[in-house]
């Protein structure tokens, strides 16, 4: 059969020659790439929602009491609901869907050389549950009493009784939405792990699997093992909210601290769940754009497993001053500071990958290097917070906010953009504009730093977080502090504005971008063998794998890359 | 850098600030080095038409040493920070100087109640002085506090003292501080506690022993012989209806 | 399902291929048909499901244990759960685990009618379990031991309730599988639902002593 006929038959063969209809292709797909795109679109839209929330509450912080354009006056209940849902949305409805569900769904089958996930219909169900969770979360803004405002951490008793949090419907919707999101990701994770284990193309050993696939799979494992107790705890909180039990209420014999332990037992590993996929994305991009083999593949994989395990024994650093036993706090302080070690190993291995390379600063590479450079500041500021004594001062200040934005923002946005710019040609068959990409990068970098550096300084000065109106506190009234707040707010607005080049680039390039071809970046991994965009079924023929994914600039070879599927 | 901190007004403030400086020197060093190396790599190894990239696997001891030797040095820095941390932490949490003054702090949505022992120096006696949103202590006096909450989790935080402690309902959590400067300082609630969280401000008034005793005397006078069960007010509403000593007002 | 006929034709799902070369050309999604690790994909996926369930129930049980250790008075509360009922239910679940094992053996021997019957004995066991639990709940509630009485009872109803929900889900899935098995289709799924049923059994083996026996 000719290539063309084969291509067509592969494209439409899922229903024996019938072209899948609009609904089966776009709304209820079982194809992993389409499901991945569904997660991506949802995540990007929720990023706009979460970003808008941050604009509103930062306006309140900089110009308290004033009407915020596009929103109105921000009352104390509004403020709390905005910061709560900003955090919840960014972690569960932006980071997880884009970094794990979108990247994982799109990349895993393509990179291991198979045609789809092992359970395509379960995959579809996962997205549908996730979509439902999104609707439930957003619905909380329209119910009587409004959205939940008890912080994304939802500590009881505040979160357990409507008389305390004043959002009888909103709090339950919030909790149900998060619980549904957990179920969706558990189901998705089962698909990822089983597919990677069982459906690799012939010849692909464990040590031939691209790092990004390892990272997403390990992340999914960490998620799976840490979320269980919180699911149990969430059921208990739900019963407290809705039925009136007292699992977390001391008046009925319960213990508020229990929730904290359950939440953070999950919450801390969760940030590594978010980090790992982007470490994987960075590995792919760094190698391709420096034409250099990844330094220490096995070291990186083992270190990642160690990171995962260690991440599960540091959680109480969120509770140093919560009233836990001080000796227990010391143990957690030591483990927390120690977790900087495997992360340092990863970063040094990546820097060593750059050594001796031939680096081209295309947009994906800029974002990856930017991610590493910015994350470094987030990582080192974590040491302050891991020190129990230092945390006595910094707990609940904007220093913490700055720390986690210097880790999460580089991961989710710098790393996420790196991946989007890099795999865009594969997913849409066209190249994005380098000029717009660079504009997006530099604008984001400058204004990201301008937004969050001031928060370190404010935190040092004693500014606490989640404070609706700093004017109540004489020690926070200093002019320099106020200047910093205004500066951070203006920078936030500019940061948001500089996302417009990305939106334009992303949408326009789909129509007018130059044709990408199969492998515009001259990379080794299997996804670049498939057509751009890959049809249903991905590969015209199942590939066979002959080597690892990072054989770049191999001495004695003419080409500086050596795709995995080429025999010789 | 230190001027970015609020003033030091307790015996612990200096230690916390010194710990901050230690961590800053150590992590600052590594941060600068790592960033410099990263940016140098990008610059030095930028693509040139003539040169090809090297082929380095990073799977033998010699090459991995480039990763693990710096990591070993970082471990040493981490241990140093751990040791300093533990020493300061123990001083805050475990080694408590004997109390020369006691106070009970009761938090609730959305205000603070402070119970001072009064002239007899004992809590839970008839001469206790109860205030709303204003804590009085005398300077250079180790003070033990007992922290409670009547509803949700709050947090007793005094930035200038560098102290912070969650108030968990159903528990009495104790801590201590020793103020070293007189003045009026902010108390913030450092745990989300509902719609009034950002409005829940209180003040701590640190006075010389003389002025403190004067305050006690006038507080008792103003109370007009009120008999008061200091550790079990019935409802917040009934509390408001009683006359408290409230210089400077509750919430504007 | 992935079978090879004597003349070399391979059937995957609803599709049949002439030879391996054609199979390789992706005439239908065959991701599920492959197994690099040698473990059938369905079983591998089930173990991951169980791993996450173990963490959920393990978390719940650990929480209960921590509370229990801090609340010696709960021993007196646990006196009011019915050991005979709990013991009977333990026996019922263990027996039903046996019948599902026998069903798996029958399915392997291609004795599909026997396998179908044994699956329904298992489902029946589940049904009896739920009946006994309903009886227990009724008698406990009428005696005033409701979910709100204290945290011990909140746990009791939450833990046994979650467990019962898993029993019910297992019964439903088992019924669906049995309809296929009777016709000889997808017999490998008997093993999978059997493993799930053993897990549900195992959770009960933990709950019974903790909620009933420990005083």
How would you describe the overall organization of this protein?
The complex is a heterotrimer of chains A (568), B (252) and C (215). The relative contact order of chain A is 0.10. In chain A, a hairpin with a 3-residue loop joins strand 1 and strand 2. With 568 residues, chain A is mainly α. Chain A is built from 18 helices and 2 strands. A two-stranded antiparallel sheet of chain A has the order 1-2. In chain B, the strands form 2 sheets. Chain B has a 5-stranded mixed β-sheet with strand order 3-2-1-5-8. In chain B, helix 1 packs antiparallel against helix 2. The C terminus of chain B is likely disordered. Chain B has 252 residues and is of the alpha+beta class. Helix content of chain B is 34%, strand content 23%. Chain C is elongated.
Summary tags:
heterotrimer, A: 568 residues, mainly alpha, two-stranded antiparallel ribbon, 18 helices, 2 strands, 1% strand, disordered N terminus, B: 252 residues, alpha+beta, 5-stranded mixed beta sheet, 4 helices, 10 strands, elongated, disordered C terminus
Topology:
The complex is a heterotrimer of chains A (568), B (252) and C (215).
Chain A: H1 3-12, H2 22-27, H3 32-62, E1 67-68, E2 72-73, H4 76-112, H5 120-139, H6 162-165, H7 168-198, H8 211-242, H9 256-290, H10 297-310, H11 326-338, H12 340-354, H13 363-386, H14 388-394, H15 398-428, H16 434-460, H17 479-497, H18 500-512
Antiparallel strand pairs in A: 1-2
Helix pairs in contact in A: 3-4, 3-5, 3-17, 4-7, 4-8, 4-9, 5-7, 7-8, 8-9, 8-10, 9-12, 9-13, 9-15, 10-12, 13-15, 13-16, 15-16, 16-17, 16-18
Chain B: H1 13-44, H2 61-93, E1 101-108, E2 111-116, E3 129-132, E4 134-138, E5 143-149, E6 154-158, E7 163-167, E8 173-177, E9 183-189, E10 202-207, H3 209-222, H4 236-241
Parallel strand pairs in B: 1-5, 4-10
Antiparallel strand pairs in B: 1-2, 2-3, 5-8, 6-7, 6-9, 9-10
Helix pairs in contact in B: 1-2
Chain C: E1 2-4, E2 10-12, E3 15-17, H1 20-24, H2 41-70, H3 74-78, H4 83-108, H5 112-142, H6 151-182, H7 188-213
Antiparallel strand pairs in C: 1-2, 2-3
Helix pairs in contact in C: 2-7, 4-5, 4-7, 5-6, 6-7
Q: Give the low-confidence spans of chain A.
A: 1-17
Helix content of chain B: 25-40%
The H-and-E topology of chain A, N to C, reads as HHHEEHHHHHHHHHHHHHHH
The greatest interface between two protein chains, and residues involved on each side, is: A-B, 96 and 87 residues
Order of helices and strands of chain B: HHEEEEEEEEEEHH
Q: Strand order of the main beta sheet of chain A, please?
A: 1-2
Task: Write down how many β-strands of chain B occur, each being a DSSP E stretch of 2 or more residues.
Answer: 10
Give the proportion of residues in helices of chain A: 55-70%
- Oligomeric state, counting identical vs distinct chains: heterotrimer
Low-confidence stretches of chain B: 224-252
Separation of the first and last Cα atoms of chain B = 34 Å
Shape label of chain A? globular
Helix count, DSSP H or I runs of 4 or more residues of chain A: 18
Strand content of chain B: 15-25%
Q: Reading side by side through the largest sheet of chain B, how are the strands ordered?
A: 3-2-1-5-8
**Main beta sheet of chain A, described?**
2 strands, antiparallel
Give the terminus-to-terminus CA distance of chain A: 25 Å
How would you characterize the largest beta sheet of chain B? 5 strands, mixed
Radius of gyration of chain A: 24 Å
- Helix and strand composition category of chain B: alpha+beta
């Amino acid at each position: 059969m000719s290539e063309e006929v084969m291509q067509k038959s592969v494209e439409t063969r899922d229903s024996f020659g019938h072209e899948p209809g609009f609904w089966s292709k776009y709304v209820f797909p079982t194809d992993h790439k389409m499901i991945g795109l569904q997660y991506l679109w949802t995540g990007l839209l929720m990023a706009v929602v979460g970003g808008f929330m941050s604009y509103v509450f930062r306006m309140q912080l900089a110009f308290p009491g004033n009407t915020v354009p596009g929103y109105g006056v921000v009352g104390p209940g509004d403020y709390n609901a905005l910061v709560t849902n900003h955090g919840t949305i960014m972690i569960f409805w932006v980071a997880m869907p884009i970094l794990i569900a979108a990247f994982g769904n799109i990349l895993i089958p393509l990179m291991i050389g198979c045609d789809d996930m092992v359970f395509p219909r379960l995959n579809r169900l996962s997205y549908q549950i996730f979509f439902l969770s999104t609707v439930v979360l957003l619905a909380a803004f329209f119910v009587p009493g409004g959205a939940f405002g008890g912080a994304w951490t939802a500590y009881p008793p505040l979160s357990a009784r409507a008389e305390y949090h004043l959002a009888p419907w909103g709090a339950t919707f919030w909790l149900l939405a998060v619980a549904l999101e957990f179920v969706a990701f558990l189901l998705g994770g089962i698909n990822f792990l089983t597919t990677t284990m069982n459906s690799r193309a012939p010849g692909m050993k464990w040590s031939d699997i691209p790092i990004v696939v390892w990272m997403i799979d390990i992340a999914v494992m960490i998620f799976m093992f840490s979320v269980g107790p919180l699911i149990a705890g969430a059921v208990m909180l739900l019963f407290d909210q809705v039925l009136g039990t007292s699992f977390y209420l001391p008046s009925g014999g319960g213990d508020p601290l229990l929730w904290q332990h359950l939440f953070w037992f999950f919450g801390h590993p969760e940030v590594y769940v978010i980090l790992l996929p982007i470490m994987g994305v960075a590995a792919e991009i760094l190698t391709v754009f420096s034409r250099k083999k990844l330094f220490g593949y096995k070291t990186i994989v083992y270190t990642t497993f160690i990171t995962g395990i260690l991440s599960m024994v540091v959680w109480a650093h969120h509770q140093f001053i919560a009233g836990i036993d001080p000796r227990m706090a010391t143990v957690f302080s030591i483990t927390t500071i120690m977790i900087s070690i495997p992360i340092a190993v990863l970063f040094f291995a990546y820097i060593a990958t750059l050594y001796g390379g031939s680096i081209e600063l295309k947009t994906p590479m800029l974002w990856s290097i930017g991610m590493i450079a910015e994350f470094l500041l987030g990582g080192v500021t974590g040491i302050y917070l891991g020190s129990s004594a230092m945390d006595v001062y910094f707990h609940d200040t904007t220093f913490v906010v700055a720390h986690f934005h210097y880790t999460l923002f580089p991961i989710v946005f710098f790393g996420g953009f790196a991946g989007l710019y890099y795999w865009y040609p594969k997913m849409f068959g066209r190249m994005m504009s380098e000029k717009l990409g660079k504009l997006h990068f530099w604008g984001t970098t400058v204004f990201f730093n301008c937004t969050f550096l001031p928060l370190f300084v404010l935190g040092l000065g004693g500014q606490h977080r989640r404070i609706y109106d700093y004017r109540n506190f004489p020690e926070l009234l200093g002019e320099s502090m106020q200047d910093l707040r205004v500066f951070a707010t203006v920078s936030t607005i500019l940061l948001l504005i500089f996302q417009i080049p990305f939106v334009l680039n992303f949408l326009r390039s789909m129509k007018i971008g130059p044709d990408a071809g199969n492998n515009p970046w001259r990379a080794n991994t299997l996804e670049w063998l498939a057509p751009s965009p890959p049809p249903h079924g991905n590969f015209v023929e199942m590939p066979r794998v002959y080597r690892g994914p990072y054989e770049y600039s191999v001495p004695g070879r003419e080409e500086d890359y050596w795709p995995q599927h080429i025999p010789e | 850098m230190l001027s970015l901190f609020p003033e030091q007004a307790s015996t612990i403030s200096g230690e916390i600030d010194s710990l901050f400086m230690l961590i800053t020197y150590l992590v600052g060093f590594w941060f600068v080095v790592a960033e410099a190396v990263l940016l140098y790599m990008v610059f030095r190894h930028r693509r040139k038409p003539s040169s090809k990239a090297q082929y380095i696997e990073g799977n033998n001891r010699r090459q991995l040493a480039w990763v693990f030797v710096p990591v070993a040095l970082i471990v040493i820095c981490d241990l140093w920070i751990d040791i300093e941390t533990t020493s300061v932490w123990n001083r805050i949490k475990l080694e408590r100087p004997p109390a020369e003054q006691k106070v009970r702090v009761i938090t609730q949505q959305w205000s603070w109640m402070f119970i001072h022992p009064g002239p007899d120096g004992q809590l839970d006696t008839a001469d206790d002085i109860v205030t709303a949103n204003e804590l009085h202590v005398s300077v250079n006096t180790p003070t033990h506090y007992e922290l409670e909450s009547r509803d949700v989790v709050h947090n007793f935080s005094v930035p200038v003292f560098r102290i912070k402690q969650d108030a968990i309902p159903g528990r009495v959590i104790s801590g201590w501080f020793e103020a070293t400067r007189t003045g009026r300082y902010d108390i913030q609630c450092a745990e989300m506690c509902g719609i009034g969280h950002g409005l829940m401000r209180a003040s701590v008034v640190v006075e010389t022993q003389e002025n403190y005793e004067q305050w006690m005397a006038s507080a008792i006078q103003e109370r007009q012989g009120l008999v008061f069960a200091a550790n079990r007010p019935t409802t917040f509403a009934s509390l408001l209806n009683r006359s408290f000593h409230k210089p400077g007002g509750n919430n504007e | 399902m992935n079978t090879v006929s004597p003349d070399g034709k391979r059937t995957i799902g609803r599709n049949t291929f002439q030879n391996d070369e054609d199979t390789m050309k992706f005439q239908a999604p065959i991701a599920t048909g492959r197994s690099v690790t040698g473990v059938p994909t369905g079983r591998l996926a089930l173990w991951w499901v169980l791993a996450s369930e173990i963490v959920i129930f393990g978390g719940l049980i650990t929480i209960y244990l921590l509370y229990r250790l801090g609340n010696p008075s709960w021993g007196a509360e646990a006196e009011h759960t019915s050991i005979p009922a709990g013991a009977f239910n333990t026996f019922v679940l263990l027996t039903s685990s046996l019948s599902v094992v026998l069903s798996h053996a029958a399915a392997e021997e291609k004795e599909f009618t026997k396998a179908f019957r044994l699956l329904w004995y298992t489902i029946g066991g589940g049904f009896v379990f739920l009946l006994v639990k309903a009886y227990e709940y009724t008698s406990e509630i009428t005696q005033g031991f409701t979910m709100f009485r204290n945290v011990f009872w909140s746990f009791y109803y939450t833990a046994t309730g979650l467990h019962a929900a898993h029993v019910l889900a297992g019964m439903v899935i088992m019924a669906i599988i049995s309809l296929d098995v009777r016709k000889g289709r997808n017999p490998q799924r008997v093993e999978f639902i059997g493993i799930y049923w053993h897990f549900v059994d195992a959770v009960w083996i933990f709950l019974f002593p903790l909620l009933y026996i420990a005083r």
